[in-house]
Amino acid sequence: MQISANILGVKINAIDMRDALQTIEGWIKRGESQYVCVTPIHAVMDCYLEPSLKKIFNASGMTTPDGMGIVWLLRLLGFRRTARVYGPDLMLAVCEFGLDKGWRHYFYGSTKAVSKNLIGQLQAKFPGLIIAGQYAPPFRPLAEDEKELVAAEIDQARPNVIWVGLSTPKQERWMGEFVNRLNPAVLVGVGAAFDFLSGSKPQAPRWVQRSGLEWLFRLVTEPKRLWRRYIKYPLFLILIIAQRLGLRSYDL
Length: 252
Known about the structure:
CATH topology: Rossmann fold
Number of strands: 8
CATH architecture: 3-Layer(aba) Sandwich
Order of helices and strands: EEHEHHEHHEHEHEHEHHHHH
Shape: globular
Number of helices: 13
Structural class: alpha/beta
Number of domains: 1
């Protein structure tokens, strides 16, 4: 059983990359249907502001500490071994870990061009990687008949891991809806990993990531799209202080 912490009512697992890989391996071996939410501060704030979304995160098989702010908070709470389990790194780690196991990978999200570039980059890095398929959904909600067709197409591809790149919170809603509509597989919402690993968008240097300033790097590169996301960070700090002082409490 994974150790977790209650952060503003969101259950976040205090894990590292090795824990994540072992958990995913166990699900695949047992043929379980599960989904993974990679969770930075802005995702926690989305859950705080939208209780229905919080239910989706808390029903996940694993909710990883994606941002350094979350990692530092978990360590402060006593989970010293916690390390960042970041979407792009998790994708690379799972692809490598599952190579000799014959894991089949499916890519759902982004555009056909981005997915094609991503798959090319991954196959170049991991020769022998099995690609089960890919689907680039339209930029609108799917009709019910389209959902049935998508589910049938994915099932026919027989993936072990389905990478979902729709950005938060759209990808979490999709996983929450589809996890039980599909044959057993592990769904992992990795957001911008499609763009970063395909080379479509610049990724912050490692030193920026480790310093906890990746949010600033992303804000500078995409200010019009992301400013609403990061403006919530000061409120997060206030709410966490209130929770730690016992002034506010949150149910999972």
